[in-house]
Design a protein that fits this description.
16% of the residues lie in helices and 36% in strands. By secondary structure, the protein is of the alpha+beta class. The chain has a domain of 255 residues: Alpha/Beta hydrolase fold, catalytic domain (Rossmann fold). It has an 8-stranded mixed beta sheet, with helices on both faces. The chain has a 4-stranded antiparallel beta sheet with strand order 1-2-3-4, with no helix packed on it. Strand 2 and strand 3 form a beta hairpin. The chain starts with 5 loop residues before the first helix and ends in a 7-residue tail after the last helix.
Length: 604
């Protein structure tokens, strides 16, 4: 197998998980980083040369919405990763975006246009940083109104096709939401999903006749199924209830086609139905990978996808539902790597302390070994390691250099039922650390793994898990890599964004009531037990895990003479959005791993 440079694996054009057809179905809006920053683009349905609509270098486009006449788009963007999103409008032919919000220290999250184009909805914490208010913006005058009383975390969703109603999500936690239906004319607001306990409700698309809408929920189930809410009698009924989570759903504007994507063991499976005949659509089997966004065209003949694989970075595709042809509308891999030299993972399980089997993706390099291995812990923690082109090609580069990778879905991960997901609540640094120990023992049992060259790596919660591992399980590792990870749970729960504060007691713990627990579970409490080199990477503008979390850990390690390397990126936040910075972060990681765990130099 040929050896490649890191830059070849990192030479990607990344596509953000957003996609949307123009109202006439002729164009597909999407966001990619072709220019080095995530900007808004359109491309013709069926293919053609893409048109760039924004030319940002500092701002990152995070969302967009077509106007009903297709002449312009709203977009949501933040600056330097600060997550203080503002809302702009830009013409469908391009031009410089016009700012419609101006409070730069507040979040503004975009909803959608009303069907007549006179209004659009967004939410903002501009009046109280702890709340998210629904705001209706009158396009002609710029006037705004707030139809609901403050004090909640409200996020707008879809308007009914007749413009009479607006869906609103009332978020209380990751595992507890309601869908509200606001009568925009009268101001009356209906809770469409009253419930007891914690239940997930996520709004989906409206029926073309505005009689109701689809929604995703796990009511009475471990997994999220698809249901339909009828406005007339204010009840909902199941449509699809697989033993996996339904993650994406869409209906064509003419009401003919319903499509949905299911997370089956981490990989995406696509399903569809002709609503007029009731027949199941015969859709092609996608290769191993993940659909991160999807949208039907207005007449239901095509489906636009953002789809990624372990060996191919996420790209824009268009599926012809009549022929089954899958057309790639972009190019995400630019490094000239032979696809035969890429490696797909194997889905495995390993036992942990309480008898559970922990699912994991195992990447084995070619050859006999023994090989060094990176144990990669995903962020979230309520997220999931999935078969994608991870960390801008880092996995594939390491495989090419003779590293193995084990990427587990420890307790707290999504995709395996709500009970498994909730095991992490108020137990950070608890049982999931034993799952990480189980992963280390599993790796030690493999005859191709060098037991003395196992590294632990992760970002965000994965960074916290890395710090927990090197401080509290020091005997298993050769080194650690922490990217934007909390080091001190006591300071972390106090420094998160204000609108997260209401979640923290249930999610992590209360800084007063649970002080002793938070101290006990904090990696910084055990800093004297670190025995291996540690790389720490931090974005200076990170609003979620502030720089002080990394600063205090690095300072403590240095005070005791430990081996720590620290990089602070002054231009970035909770991860890097600029392409050159994202590449730099991952190259720092790869070079660190190679420096300590490989004898031979990397390719020049």
């Amino acid at each position: 197998m040929k050896k490649y440079r890191f830059e070849q694996f990192a030479a990607t054009r990344l596509y953000y998980p957003l996609v949307g057809y123009s109202p006439d179905g002729k164009h597909i809006a999407h966001v990619n980083n072709m220019t080095g920053q995530f900007n808004l683009w359109t491309v013709s349905s069926g293919g053609g040369y893409p048109r760039q609509l924004t030319a940002y270098t500092d701002n990152t486009v995070r969302n967009f919405a077509w106007s009903p006449d297709g002449q312009k788009l709203l977009l949501q963007a933040d600056q330097n990763g600060d997550e203080q999103h503002q809302i702009y409008v830009v013409g469908a032919a391009g031009g410089w975006p016009e700012a419609l919000t101006s409070k730069l220290d507040a979040q503004h999250n975009l909803g959608d246009w009303s069907p007549d184009g006179k209004w659009f909805a967004y939410c903002a914490n501009d009046q109280n940083p702890a709340n998210m208010d629904i705001v209706l913006y009158e396009v002609e005058t710029g006037d705004t109104r707030r139809p609901l009383p403050p004090g909640k975390l409200y996020f707008p969703a879809d308007w009914s096709r007749d413009g009479h109603y607006l869906q609103i999500v009332d978020i209380r936690s990751n595992t507890d939401q309601d869908v509200l239906v606001l009568d925009v004319q009268t101001g009356d607001c209906l809770n469409a999903t009253p419930h007891e306990g914690e239940v997930i409700f996520v709004p989906g698309p409206w029926a073309p006749d505005s009689s109701g809408f689809y929604l995703l929920t796990n009511t009475g189930r471990e997994f999220t199924g698809l249901a339909f809410f009828r406005l007339a009698d204010q009840t909902w009924a199941w449509v699809e209830t697989p033993n996996h989570d339904i993650e994406q759903v869409d209906i064509s504007r003419n009401g003919r086609v319903l499509a949905w994507a299911v997370n089956e063991g981490g990989a995406s499976k696509l399903y569809g139905r002709d609503l007029q005949t009731g027949e199941t659509l015969r859709l092609p089997e996608l290769p191993l990978g993940v659909i991160s966004a999807m949208k039907l065209n207005p007449d239901g003949t095509k489906l636009a996808l953002i789809f990624g694989r372990p060996t191919v970075a996420s790209c824009l595709y268009e599926l012809d539902l009549r022929t089954g042809d899958l057309l790639m509308l972009g190019q995400s891999m630019l490094g000239g790597i032979d696809p035969a030299d890429m490696i797909e993972p194997e889905l495995v399980e390993y036992p942990t302390f309480d008898g559970r089997m922990i699912p994991a993706w195992l990447y084995r390099p070619r050859g006999a070994g023994p090989f060094p291995v990176v144990l990669s812990i995903h962020g979230g923690p309520e997220s999931q390691e999935r078969p994608t082109y991870a960390y801008n090609g880092l996995y594939q580069y390491l495989l090419n250099r003779g590293f193995g990778i084990l990427a587990p879905n420890i307790r707290g991960s999504t995709g395996y039922g709500i009970s498994y997901q909730k095991l992490i609540h108020r137990d950070w640094g608890g049982a999931e650390l034993k799952d990480i120990e189980g992963a280390a023992k599993y790796l030690q049992s493999l005859d191709w793994v060098d037991k003395n060259r196992i590294a632990v790596f992760g970002g965000s919660f994965g960074g916290f898990a890395t710090l927990s591992a090197v401080t509290r399980l020091p005997d298993y590792w050769a080194l650690g890599v922490d990217i934007v990870g909390p080091s001190n749970l006591l300071t972390f729960v106090k420094s998160v964004p204000p609108f997260w504060q209401r979640f923290m007691k249930q999610w992590v713990g209360d800084p007063e009531e649970d002080r002793d627990l938070l101290v006990e579970r904090s990696p910084i409490t055990y800093v004297d037990q670190i025995r291996v080199p540690l790389l720490v990477i931090q974005g200076a503008k990170d609003p979620r895990v502030v720089q002080a979390e990394s600063d205090q850990m690095v300072e403590r390690i240095r005070q005791r003479g430990g081996d720590v390397r620290y990089y602070v990126d002054e231009e970035e936040g909770h991860g890097a959005t600029r392409r050159e910075n994202a590449i730099k972060w991952m190259k720092l990681v790869s070079e660190y791993l190679e420096e300590y765990l490989l004898d031979e130099p990397s390719p020049a």
